[in-house]
Specification:
globular; mainly alpha
Length: 227
């Protein structure tokens, strides 16, 4: 434990924590997106998927116990990810207390320059998303266990859909830079593979963006409706 804490206190330790927690979160995001796309199969298929998530592990585990284990891991990953990112930002500012007279982002991409603000937007969106689709406080007609109904009703408000698309757009840029940085931190990048790894980061990020926004757009154009 002491060795792990000593390692975390270093800059590379914080970057490794960000990379590992980022990998966990990216895996969850992709799985969550694939789950949402079951809405295009049928309402029953999506609701069966929701039931599976609540009952996975039975009879060894009780209802939602496995789901809560996953939630705890995700929450811990988010906390560690934000903590490490904040500490790295503080260390970066302490290393150059005087701001540049004129900042010219020659080597930085738009995604990397907006990483911190994007992270704040994503955090606020996560809170709203939980209140909207998980606990139901921000939902106009939340029905426990009826995932399809909650999805369609929740995306009938154009302002909610617009906010959702903007937030997922921020997530796309955040993921692109985060996945690329993860490859660098874990030592997987080299001159021969950099172009391929950047392309892979872009494909994953854009794929997640398209996958997530396809559901609310389908609701808005009337493709997904209440039966």
């Amino acid at each position: 434990m002491a060795v792990a804490l000593s390692f975390y206190r270093t800059t590379i330790g914080k970057k490794v924590v960000m990379a590992v927690t980022g990998l966990i979160l990216v895996g969850f995001i992709i799985a969550h997106m694939l789950g949402n796309l079951k809405a295009f199969d049928s309402p029953e298929h999506l609701n069966e998927y929701g039931t599976f998530l609540r009952e996975v592990g039975y009879p060894l585990l009780g209802p939602e116990q496995a789901l809560w284990m996953v939630r705890i891991v995700l929450l811990a990953s988010i906390i560690l990810h934000i903590t490490a990112a904040t500490q790295l930002t503080i260390l970066d500012r302490q290393s150059r207390p005087e701001r540049y007279v004129q900042f010219r982002p020659v080597q930085q991409s738009y995604a990397s320059r907006t990483m911190r603000w994007g992270g704040i937007i994503i955090l606020l969106f996560i809170i709203y998303h939980i209140l909207h689709f998980t606990t139901g406080q921000a939902h106009p007609d939340f029905r426990e266990g009826d995932v399809y109904h909650n999805l369609v009703v929740g995306f009938q408000n154009p302002l909610v859909v617009l906010f959702y698309i903007l937030a997922v757009g921020a997530l796309m840029f955040h993921m692109y830079h985060g996945i690329w940085s993860m490859f660098q931190t874990l030592g997987l990048n080299n001159v021969r593979w950099n172009r391929l790894l950047r392309a892979l980061s872009a494909v994953i990020s854009i794929g997640v963006f398209i996958g997530f926004i396809s559901v609310p757009i389908a609701v808005q154009i009337g493709y997904l409706t209440l039966q």
